[in-house]
Specification:
By secondary structure, this protein is an alpha+beta fold. 44% of the residues lie in helices and 21% in strands. The chain is elongated. The protein starts with a helix and ends with a helix.
């Protein structure tokens, strides 16, 4: 089985940066865990190892209050050109239920402290399925936290999140741009609370295109739509009236609010 196939089988890697130690034959060496997954770990340090060698690994949480120990086997060895240190991949072997529980706790600590680690390993040309698979590996609460502060590369992936709560959290992101808001508004399943949130955000109250998209969104509430259309310019009102599927109540109010002479020719 190839390394990539094995990686997919055990799950996504999480950027770790954890203190680690490894015993290779009779040599106990201090090192660092570069990344971690539920089936193995990538260590970096002044290490020497042969492929398939037996290794005993100890990983410690940042607070050093949680330690994970496991026997493993070296799956690959590579030189880090930037640091000059050696990286060795180790696959855990024959873990007990107690070891798996400790590992899961350690992974949770890593995800919480380093979110969104699984996204950092995604290539820019990752498929939608790969992106969604990576997102699902991050607990929902952490994805929501990430979305509120995510930078452009991370937001690119978060647009594909299946949770409307994550999309709403992203709408609170202070770095969100108008084109990104427009992209969000093209998602038909948004929560009404998300549309209300965007309608009140001072960043977008002067953007007529965004206001029109909110007011005519299939999930918008009547009070939000009514409030927005009252602030539109005449060209904006004309555009809204001509849109198919417009709420009849909103359309009637718009038509009644415009002088008869201005309606001629519409």
């Amino acid at each position: 089985m190839s390394e990539n196939s094995s990686e997919k089988r055990v799950g996504h890697r999480f950027l770790a940066g954890l203190k680690a130690a490894v015993t290779l034959e009779t040599r106990a060496l201090s090192c660092r865990a570069v990344d971690l997954h539920r089936g193995g770990v990538l260590l970096e340090g002044n290490l020497e190892a042969d492929r398939d060698a037996v290794a005993f690994v100890t990983l410690s949480s940042s607070a050093e209050d949680l330690n994970f120990e496991s026997r493993g086997r070296v799956t690959h060895v590579e030189q880090n050109d930037k640091s000059g240190r050696t990286r060795i991949g180790i696959q855990f072997e024959s873990m007990s239920d107690a070891q798996r529980e400790t590992l899961e706790l350690l992974v949770s600590r890593v995800v919480e402290g380093m979110s969104p680690a699984p996204l950092a390993h995604l290539p820019r040309d990752a498929t939608i399925d790969e992106i969604r698979d990576a997102l699902k590996s991050i607990p929902l609460a952490h994805r929501i936290t990430v979305a509120q502060k995510a930078l452009p590369p991370e937001r690119k992936f978060l647009f594909h999140d299946d949770s409307n709560l994550v999309l709403e959290a992203m709408c609170r992101n202070p770095h969100l741009t108008a084109p990104e808001v427009i992209r969000v508004l093209r998602i038909p399943t948004l929560l009404p609370t998300t549309l209300d949130l965007l309608s009140r955000d001072p960043r977008w109250t002067g953007n007529e295109e965004i206001k029109i998209m909110i007011a005519t969104h299939p999930r918008v509430t009547l009070p939000v739509a009514d409030r927005l259309v009252r602030t539109l310019s005449l060209p904006g009102i004309r555009k809204v009236i001509r849109l198919p599927g417009l709420n009849p109540t909103i359309k009637d109010r718009l038509v009644q609010s415009i002088p008869h002479k201005q309606l001629q020719g519409w």
